[in-house]
Amino acid sequence: MRTVLGYVLIILLIPLSVLTFYYADAEAGKVQNFDDYVEERIVINEVDLPQASKIKDTNGDIYVELHQPNRIVVEGEKIPAFLKELFLQSEDQHFYEHSGVDAAAVIRAFMVNAQSDEIEQGASTITQQVARNIYLTQDRTLARKIAEVLYSYQIEKKLEKNEILDLYLNVIYFNNNVYGVEAAAQYYFQTPVDKLSKAQMAFIASIPNNPSLYNPEKHFDNTKTRQERLIDIMAREEFITAEEAEQIKNEPITLNTRSRLDKYPDYSTFVMTEFRQLVSESEGFDQQLLNAEGDARDAIQEKLSNRVNEILASGVIIHTALDPAIQKKAVSAVNNVLGGSSVQGAAAVVGNQTKDVVALSGGKDYDNTQFNRSYQAYRQPGSTIKPLLDYAPYVDTYGASVNDLVSADNFDSSFCPGGEKTCFENYSLKEYGMVTLTEALTKSHNTAAMRLYLRTGKERAFSYLDKFDFDRVLEEERYNLSPALGGFTYGVSPLEMAGAYTSFVKGTYQDPRSIKRVTDFQGNTVLKWPEEEPVRVWSLATTSKMRHMLNSVMVNGTGRKAVFSTSGYIGGKTGTTNDYRDLWFVGLTEGYTAAVWTGKDKYEESWDNIRFMESYAPHQLIWKRIMRLKKSPLVRGFFYAFVSS
After folding, report:
1. Which one of 55, 203, 221, 349 has the minimum C-beta count within 10 Å?
2. Does the annotation count 91 as an active-site position?
């Protein structure tokens, strides 16, 4: 009864409202005619429909669809005539005859719906639905209904009928965050709209009339019933024969719903973080944020978020450096080596030539709602910092040879804080006398690294580290001793370490990036990182010497478990913090540089079987499985037995 009364009011009030406008216009001394009056107050701008953006890998394949909303705009000529006619017959039979509002349709809908238990026909024209979905809200108020009429009047003046119909077919809602016929076809049947059968077309055409009631995922029978009703209408209006109608109705409908595409959440999470940074730097938000505080800073961040969403809603393609093959290996290696334990891990892989981020593992069994350890986890790097802060700065400063000698004995009490003789001792607690730089790094002698750091000078050693993108290394730490052995206030991330070690390829550094460019659907570049010249960190001579020493670490030293057969270069460095809280391996081959971290998320959590962790070396096994070309066998059986879950 309420529905019937509502339609009665609409029938009475809409014509009354329109007449009121005309009457008021006439009584205003005919200063303006009605068209001019409406033209001033209702502006129909060019429409850019929000649609789903996409992320592509380095091969040009889509691996993420960003549903904001899930809409795929399709040109009118690609929409089958049968599907267009289905909507015309069910929603607006006199579409090509009226001027935006169909009074006869309002009366007809009232009569049909008054005799039915449900809304059989809508009173709104297709033009009114376009006005409501693009320019107005879905509120059921008299003011909104009057505005809808006026907007429809203007739309009919500005656009051709076929343009309005095409716009309608791209804006209508099909439930499940799906908008437009192309997205509906691909979501419910994983088929382009121009490849649907007539039965499938009639099925999706049934949904927008009442998206909740005709949601196929929850009320399939309701949708099927309405589909058959639409087919009967098409037969009645002689667009198909009665025989064809029966054939279409008897065709089985099998939903093949398409879940949101996000094949590699470890990587795509980082892409979206970098995308926000790209927008911020491209449009000046980063400069605004430099000195902003409190509410002002929050307001700028909100504007940035709105701008990011605006760009994504416009329909863009984010082209990335993701290498699917390496990505799968990185995720598999972390999951398999650490599976069945309470140990976590992360990995980051960077291309040596391009400095692109090609793969990331955010953690064991990662999904995109979790903390991404590959770039958000800041951990103590242990001895992996030694090549960057101790050895390379010393070699670069003094032109030292890999065979130059350094003491690996303990420091005397005059040096140590508090007079403790064993401060900054070697891991083995032994003294080794004078050793070559190569041996010192190969065996990771702490006292030798500290001596090189002190000879270079803390300030000068940090001047090299400053060239890398270590976000959470503090300014005051350049005056401390502990950084020489990997002791920082916050630490570094796996991605930062992988990026820094790429400097041992040619002696230069660039920030690792995942995004190559952002384009619209026509291929026009929307956003792109500016071209940057690589920063020279080490001389070529220093780079060559460091590569020799890093290779020795793997062949003769602490990194032997990461070694695999290769005809090219291989080098790296292990890192272990107190009580094995963090186990690192960072290394490079001819093509790629990768950093792997394993450990407990919380430092207060203790290891079981600490010595086993050292001998098992999961960080090295993960690195090896990612970097070598052929697949490695599963090696996790013993890990399950010795590490607590």
Report:
1. 221
2. yes
